[in-house]
Amino acid sequence: EIVMTQSPATLSVSPGESATLSCRASQSVNSNLAWYHQRPGQAPRLLIYGASTRATGIPARFSGSGSGTEFTLTISSLQSEDFAVYYCQQYNNWPLTFGGGTKVEIK
Amino acid sequence: QVQLVESGGGVVQPGGSLRLSCAASGFTFSNYGMHWVRQAPGRGLEWVAFIRYDGSDKYYADSVTGRFTISRDNSKNTLYLQMNSLRAEDTAVYYCAKDAAATRSFDYWGQGTLVTVSS
After folding, report:
1. Would the N or C end of chain B have less CB density within 10 A of its end CB?
2. Residue B102 has pLDDT above 90, yes or no
3. Which residues are within 8 A (CB) of B24 and not within 5 positions of it... i.e. 6 or more apart?
4. Each residue of A11-63: pLDDT tens digit?
5. Structure confidence at residue B103 (pLDDT)
């Protein structure tokens, strides 16, 4: 099983600032990586797939990069609706696995 | 618009069984693989199971293999999860999710149904 490790666990950011989230895989997942965010009480929402392709309707302030074992999600100019928990997920191998999440909170 | 509506959750005793359903609409259900993903209270996401668009192939997390069975009825646009030999650690919100085309990411999610395993 591929273990996905996200850091930091919590990120405190002021509205309008940018945030950089990291995700590391225990072995290469090529570019088969997705990012989601989840607001309290809601289902997760797909943000990025293929490591860097924004999903339908996702604003350009979300960008993903990386390949192999190291990935980054950058959120520029954080809006109020962006404060949430963010998860990475690999789909290179079965079983599909998620990282433990990064909570982006208001500073 | 794509809609996924789960049902069938509830309280069940350890060792018991439950069947979850997910009614799909707004897309051609028979063309897409489908997943179940769960989230224990206050915890992260855990992928549970996948079924191909035609039901010909299925994959499971190790934690549920041999106890859970994923299935689908394309004539009813419905996904199922049969859960047997339930344990306390199966307590979670269970989401059904649509497989994104050409990837194994999840592009649409239902709102989830809560399963509580407790005596």
Report:
1. N
2. no
3. B2, B3, B4, B34, B77, B78, B79, B96, B98
4. 999 999 999 999 999 999 999 999 999 999 999 999 999 999 999 999 999 99
5. 86
Residues of chain A with C-beta less than 8 angstroms from the C-beta of B60:
95
| pLDDT at residue B90 is higher than 90 | yes
Q: Is the pLDDT of residue B101 over 90?
A: no
Distance in angstroms (rounded) separating the CA atoms of residues B110 and A39: 14
Q: Which amino acid is at A11?
A: L
Distance set, CA B8 to CA A5, A29, B17, B19 (Å): 33, 35, 11, 6
Look up residue A19 and give its two tokens.
């945030």
Q: What is the pLDDT of residues B24-51, one digit of tens each?
A: 999 999 999 999 999 999 999 999 999 9
Q: In this complex, do A91 and B59 lie within 8 Å of one another by their Cβ atoms? A: no
Contact status of A58 with chain B (Cβ, < 8 Å): no
DSSP 8-state class, residue B56: S
CA–CA–CA angle A65, A22, A95 (5° rounding): 85
| Contact at CB, A1 and B62, closer than 8 angstroms | yes
What is the least distance, in Å, from the CA of A9 to any CA of chain B? 12
Q: Which residues of B touch A44 (CB under 8 A)?
A: 37, 45, 95, 106, 109
